[in-house]
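Q: Given only this backbone (400 positions), what sequence would you predict?
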């Protein structure tokens, strides 16, 4: 019987990487760190911003379970990657509850109770849902001085040279929440995370005969991560309208200028956290083709479970977008060679039972010419993340 697509052979990790994750973080203080925790069919995500003034801050996107994220934060602080949690003022400039489903915010009330005094702003879509987790989260916000925002597409925050842009829900969809009705997953706040963000610089303009300094927009070639939450077809259809693809026109000077400033497609991304745990409604072929990710991450139990995530319709769309079928009989690469990774992933050993690959961490370098680096921590869904067990993958697809 063939191994499932989320199983990989042993030997794909650096032999000398075990136990060195925290040291690698310390050696790259200007990197952005992204964690997708293994919580089964759910999302818990943590973004560590690059170090500023000797300390990192963090952005939280969903908290599916109690305990696991708090344990990771404590481990990161203990390893010196984050400042001590007890006296870390305003450690969380932004926390996002993408939508009110329990597999995304069940642990949010606990998180806000523990860290609410260190949170600047909370984003949620404004979709009211009669669940205990949602009600408790709203009560926690009412009892705090946290800025409470309900953003729609185009809303941005730039934090420590990292830009967060809301892709969904569009304002038209948001205005239907309380009237015509919107499927709750389509209320999801999906995000584009760019690092390093474009910035304004003062420089001399060679075309300026007076040689006066002018403020210019310095456009780097930033890394881009799309965190898809549980957005489905309706939400992504609106995003395709809100963020249209720039179509080439031969000889067009305007096209060249626009492409240089913003790229051909604002939905393009190096990393995609696949929406809705790779359900059959979460993504489609055209969407993934536009994004063209180097790495696609799926948070699910890996078959089984109540909903059977991931669904073959979604995973086949990913595979076809990342390796178009050129001719009949073309052999398909393994998922890990296509850049598809599962929180429920297994490492297959020649002489024993498969072991979990667990939570994912990506190190995103400040320089766009450098490479992404990916670690796995070997934790099952019910386990805490042990940073000393982190191992770096040696084979990571490059699409730059």
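A: Predicted residues:
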């Amino acid at each position: 019987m063939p191994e499932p697509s989320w199983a990989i052979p042993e030997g794909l990790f650096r032999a000398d990487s075990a136990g060195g994750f925290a040291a690698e973080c310390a050696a790259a203080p200007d990197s952005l760190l992204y964690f997708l925790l293994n919580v089964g069919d759910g999302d818990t995500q943590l973004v560590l911003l690059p170090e500023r003034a000797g300390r990192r801050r963090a952005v939280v996107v969903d908290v599916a379970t109690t305990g696991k994220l708090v344990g990771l934060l404590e481990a990161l602080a203990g390893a010196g990657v984050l400042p001590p949690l007890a006296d870390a003022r305003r450690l969380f400039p932004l926390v996002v509850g993408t939508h009110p489903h329990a597999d995304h915010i069940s642990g949010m009330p606990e998180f806000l109770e523990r860290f609410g005094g260190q949170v600047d702003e909370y984003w949620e879509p404004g979709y009211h849902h009669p669940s205990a987790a949602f009600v408790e989260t709203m009560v926690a916000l009412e009892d705090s001085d946290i800025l409470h925002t309900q953003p729609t597409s185009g809303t941005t925050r730039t934090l420590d040279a990292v830009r967060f842009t809301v892709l969904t829900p569009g304002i038209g969809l948001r205005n239907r929440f309380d009237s015509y009705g919107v499927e709750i997953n389509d209320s999801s706040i999906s995000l584009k995370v760019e690092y390093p963000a474009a910035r304004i610089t003062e420089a001399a303009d060679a075309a300026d005969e007076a040689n006066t300094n002018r403020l210019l927009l310095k456009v780097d070639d930033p890394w881009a991560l799309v965190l898809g939450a549980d957005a489905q077809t309706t939400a992504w259809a609106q995003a395709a309208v809100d963020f249209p693809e720039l179509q080439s026109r031969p000889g067009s000077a305007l096209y060249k200028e626009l492409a240089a400033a913003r790229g051909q497609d604002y939905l393009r991304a190096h990393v995609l956290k696949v929406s809705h745990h790779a359900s059959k409604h979460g993504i489609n072929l055209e969407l993934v083709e536009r994004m063209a990710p180097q790495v696609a991450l799926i948070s699910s139990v890996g078959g089984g479970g109540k909903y059977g995530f991931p669904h073959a319709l979604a995973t086949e769309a990913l595979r076809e977008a990342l390796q178009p079928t050129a001719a009949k009989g073309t052999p398909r690469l393994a998922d890990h060679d296509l850049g598809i990774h599962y929180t429920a992933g297994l490492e297959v050993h020649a002489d024993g039972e498969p072991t979990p690959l667990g939570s994912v961490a990506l190190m995103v370098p400040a320089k766009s010419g450098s490479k992404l680096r990916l670690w796995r921590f070997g934790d099952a869904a019910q386990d805490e993340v042990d940073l000393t067990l982190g191992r770096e993958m040696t084979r990571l697809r490059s699409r730059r």
